[in-house]
Design brief:
By secondary structure, the chain is mostly helical. Helix content is about 80%, strand content about 0%. Helix 3 runs antiparallel to helix 4 and helix 8 packs antiparallel against helix 9. The longest helix has about 70 residues.
């Protein structure tokens, strides 16, 4: 009984099962079907892989060059105008408004806000015209209230109240409008940093096509050895190794890039929240320092893209080879054993 059961085990091996599944096919037709399947799987896999990987790179580049600087610039501008208002209130409270050179701090803050908005003008698709106009009007009113009308207390008070109203008026003031811009910009940054369903579908298609390609390559190698008595085909073996590499390294690189994008977006959320905190000089100064530090963290997280570029170039070259090598291996074998004998 034992010897009979042992002798029957090879009949249930994977090789015997696959041999039985392919038994109704003629060898030439079988190799031609494998050639077609390998080519189609390789083309689908490489196309989906390159497209999905390119989309990930584009998202990282957009977040680094456009969305993150815009979020940082808006946060810095908001804190700068609030700091300018606070410094003006301190000068009034301490009766230093008439002292020469006493307004340098708030002027430098207004200049920083203006420069920040100018830097992000080409990095956002939002209209900054109204905000820039409000900032210019606010700066003018503040300068009039602190410089021109020093000897006219009523006019000075009126201009300073006007400046404060321009800054904080609900819905239409400078700070509320900056808040609206920040919310819209954060939505853009979130959409850029997140992997959408289309991109996820592309990765699924690429990985499934690569798995099908690997199975087709193993089947083709089996057919060549089982039906044709040939040794391992180097073209198909090289194609199999490349298929495994393409299924692993671009996915790992994309996963690492997505982690960096998620971390950068969390830092952008921290930057935005920090710009809404601080109701005194110390609080505003600390918030500005936190925004500056987090901005550096974001730049570091998004700056190192050299290795992802190398992986993309490697994926492109490997994709071309994984299309050509298996096809070349089977074409050469078909031409040598069958096509020339017509």
């Amino acid at each position: 009984m034992t010897s009979g059961r042992t002798a029957s085990l090879p009949g249930y091996s994977p090789a015997a099962f696959w041999r039985g599944c392919l038994s109704r096919w003629r060898t030439r037709r079988l190799l031609e079907v494998h050639l077609l399947a390998l080519t189609m799987c390789a083309l689908v896999a490489v196309g989906a892989l390159l497209l999905s990987y390119h989309q990930t790179q584009r998202g990282a580049e957009a977040l680094s060059s456009r969305e993150a600087p815009a979020v940082q610039g808006l946060a810095a501008a908001r804190l700068a105008v609030l700091r300018a208002d606070w410094e003006t209130q301190v000068l009034l409270h301490k009766d230093l408004i008439h002292v020469a050179g006493s307004g340098e701090t708030y002027r430098s803050q207004l200049s920083a806000a203006d420069q920040g908005l100018s830097r992000i003008a080409d990095r956002t698709n939002q209209d900054l015209g109204t905000v820039n106009g409000l900032l210019a009007t606010y700066s003018n009113s503040l300068n009039l209230g602190t410089s021109m009308y020093r000897d006219q207390p009523l006019m000075q008070e009126q201009k300073l109240k006007e400046a404060h109203s321009l800054l904080t008026r609900p819905g239409v003031g400078l700070v509320p409008r900056l808040n609206q811009l920040q919310q819209a910009q954060m939505k853009h940054a979130e959409a850029t940093a997140a992997m959408g369903w289309l991109q996820r579908s592309g990765w699924w298609i690429a990985e499934l096509a690569l798995a099908a390609l690997a199975l087709a390559l193993l089947s083709a190698l089996f057919v060549l050895r089982d039906r044709c008595g040939r040794d391992w085909n180097p073209y198909l073996l090289a194609g199999f190794v490349l298929t495994v590499l393409l299924a692993v390294f671009p996915l790992l690189t994309t996963s690492s890039t997505e982690d960096d994008l998620d971390s950068a977006f969390r830092d952008l959320q921290t930057i935005t929240k920090a710009s809404h905190h601080g109701c005194c000089s110390g609080g505003l100064d600390g918030a500005q320092q936190q925004v500056s530090e987090k901005s550096e963290d974001v730049r570091r997280e998004l700056a190192d893209d050299t290795w992802t570029d190398r992986v993309y170039r490697g994926t492109l070259i490997g994709g071309l080879l994984v299309v050509l090598l298996p096809a070349a291996g089977l074409v050469l074998r078909l031409d040598s054993d069958y096509w020339r004998r017509r």
